[in-house]
Every structure is written in C-alpha cells, then in structure tokens.
Fold:
Amino acid sequence: MMVETDKIRVPMREQPSEERVRNFDSVPLGYSEKEAMAEARRCIQCQDPACETKCPVNMKIRAMIEKIAEGDFKEAFLIAKEDNPIPAISGRVCPQEDQCEGVCTMGKKGDAINIGKLGAFLGDWAMRNGVTEELHIDERDKKVAVIGSGPAGISCAVDLRKLGYHVTLFEALHVAGGVLQYGIPAFRLPKDIVDYELTYLQKIGVDVRLNNIVGQNVMFDELRREFDAIFIGTGAGAPRFLKIEGEELMGVYSANEFLIRVNLMKAYDFPRHDTPIVCGSRVGVIGAGNVAMDAARCAVRLGAKEVYILYRRTKRESPAREEELHHALEEGVIFMELVNPTKLLGSEDGWVKGIELVRMKLGEPDSSGRPRPVKIDGSEFIMELDTMVNALGTVPNRLFLDRTPELETTSWGGIKVDENLMTNIVGVFAGGDSTSGGATVIQALGEGKKAAASIHDYLSGR
Ligand code: FAD
Structure:
C-alpha cells in the first residue's frame, strides 16, 4: 500500500456559517471518494493500532482505512459494519478526539487521521450504492425483548439477531432511534441517514414495534412471561431541573422539550408541521455540553438575534465535542464563562424576561478532575432574556422504573447492573444511558454489544 505522511488532514468541506444559520441542512458536506482515499492514505498502518483499543466497540479501524486507501469501499464498509451497526451515525457524532483520533500516531506530529469522517463516508457510500452485508443467520428458538431503540437497543438487537435469536424491539415513540432522532439536530445528523441506517434492523429480521411504551401499553410482566431474556435500553430522557425560582415561567424550556419540538416534531417548519415553538430574540442556554450546543445552534436557526451559552466553568472545561463548540462559535453563539443562574425573572403575564446570574471562579479540582466552580459572593447581576433553555443533563424517565419497582436502581435513578450488565432480575439486562445516566452514542453501542454477548451466554446456559 502507498504510504503518504502528510501532516495535515484532507479538509472537510462545510456549508459556510452565514449560509447554514438559515437552514437545518448538514454542516459538513462529506468526503468525495477521492478525498476519502487521500485522507486514508495518510494512515501509516500502525502495527499496534491504539485507535482500535480506544474505540468502545473496537472497530477494526486499521483494516477499514487500508481498504479505503485502496478504493475498495465495499470491503471497507463491511469491515466497519462487523463491529458497528451504524457507522454513518457514529462517524458524525462520536467524540473522536477523546477516543480513536485522540491516540492516533499521526496526531503526535500533525493532524490525526479523520477516522470519524471516514466512517461517515463509508456509511453514506453504502447508502448511495445500496450495499449491505450478506448475512447467513442460523435461527435459534429463543426470544429476546429489547426495550428502547436508541444506540444501546440497536446494537444489542443487531448482535442478538446475528446470533440467530428472535428479537422484538419495543419503542415508545413513533420513530426508532432514540436521541439520534429526537435529540441531535439534522444539521449534525441528517435524518435520512438515521432512517436508512435503521432500516438495517428490519432487513435482518428484528421485529420493530413502534408506539409501544413498556410500563404503559405493554407491561413488563407480560414481556417476562413471553421472552427468554430482556434488554432494557430506555435511555435517560428526563430533564434535570435547575430548582431555582422562576423555572415554571413560560419561555423556559428543558433542552429535551426544546430539541424534541425542533428535531422530532419539526417545529422549525411550522405550520407545515403541526408543532409550534416560541423562540425569542435573546436566548440563554444553561450548560456547555453537546446538548447545550445543539439547543443554542437550533435557536440561532430559529432566528434568535443573540444566543448565549451560560456556563459555570470556562470553554476549556466544556464537555462538548470540539467540532460542536467550534461550529457554535462560528455561528455566532456567545459563550459566557464563569456564571451560574440564581433565579429567573418573569413579566406580569408569566413569560420569562430575564435571569439573575452570579459570577464564579475556578477552584481546586473536584471528583470529575475539573476545577470546581466557586461562587463569588455579591457578584449577582441581571441579564435580559426572553427564552431560556436548561441543558443541565438528564436522568432516566421514571415512568418505566415506577412501574417496575422490582428493578433495583442507584441513588440517582439509574438501573443497577453487574459486570455482565445483568440487573438484579435474572435474565434481565440493561445498558446505555439508562445505567450510565447520559454518556455517548458509541458507549451505548458498546454496552448494547456487551449485553448481547452476556444474554447469549445466559441463554446458552453458560
Ligand atoms: P436513547 O438514545 O435515549 O434511546 C432510548 C430509547 O428508549 C428512546 O427511543 C426512548 O423513546 C425509548 N424508551 C424509553 N422508555 C421506554 C419505554 N418505557 N418503552 C419503550 N421505549 C422506551 N453522544 C455522542 O456520542 N455525541 C454527540 O454528539 C451527542 N450529542 C447529543 C445531543 C443531545 C441533544 C443529546 C440528548 C444527547 C447527545 N449525546 C451525544 C448522547 C447520546 O445521544 C446518548 O448517550 C445515547 O443516545 C444513549 O443511547 P441509549 O440507547 O442508551 O438511549
């Protein structure tokens, strides 16, 4: 194979920021075949590829890149798909800088190989060319129920199906995909790509049942009677509240509600779609992770004139992916560092009209290793706002958990599992955000795979 050692990665073409703030179309425009090959040829094919070890699903990245460099996209796609059921999606949203790309040898002296965008290229290429895996499945007589169709449920269902189990996937919403559909906006993750990646579930014979809320219109006990094992991948879809005065005012949203209205219900296209959204001209978003960036960038696209990220630490500690933070700033989002909300102020007719913030400074590191934000007494000030979005994080939805009191949970409301991802109920497994409380797509995929392996062991009597 030809080896080139260019230090700079092949640039990704993007919609210019002044154009993209007026639409919800994808920001990155994707690699062409020629560009993907050129980027792949920068890879020096390490003997001991650290990128693979750092990948939560241990994708065979080196072999995948080698095939792209040779122009054998079909083989490269099949290699990617062996370990990752949704490469076009994870390639777009994984925090690669902390995983595969973070340990890439090329990154030591220049740019790391753009592994994420190469993965996305392959998924898109396969979609355009109608390429899928040819699977031979040896059927077994055991049945498994998977609850939730986010990344954890998808990977668990796919791996079990490939092993020959009859898999039924129950999803509460009218579409499959979890956060991939309702949370992450189309300008980061186009929905035709999500839809296409998910057709794979049906193609391999997973029985996908939408509009089925386990604990409401399907009971957990019924599933326990009907199925030989169960995987719970119900995510963490309930917002954490600020618990400050004024949170009940109109114009104050949880990021979940704001993003579901925009992404799932397409409020940006109201009245062609039925769901409206009220987004004012001065918007504050509390938090600085991916969810906060998504909410802020949606507000920009909904026409807000000033959009502020209000964060109690600094940009450096922001947990958002580098690319999202960079894109948000390019799009005019204003990052206000070292501030914390203390109360929200309302107008006489009940709408939010401002926020009281207190200034913070950075102290000693806390348990997360990041400097602890410390309040500066007497530094409170008022900022005028007409829309406020709370992106402080999420916890598992109580609906399912309250209806299954026999399932043990942690102090913060996550489902308790052992090292094999089995819950306290024998034969019932869980993974993804429902056990971790909000992590990443690839971590949820990894846990779905791990649970599938444990379920296979369990059903094989091991
Ligand atoms: P989810 O994706 O939450 O899926 C759970 C599914 O279970 C949902 O479809 C839900 O409807 C269904 N469900 C819940 N209860 C029931 C029930 N009782 N019966 C049936 N179905 C039920 N991660 C990244 O790696 N990169 C990013 O850029 C990124 N951006 C994000 C942006 C936003 C706005 C959000 C909210 C999260 C983001 N994340 C990102 C995190 C990532 O999306 C999650 O960690 C991941 O989706 C978790 O997968 P999951 O399968 O555990 O849960």
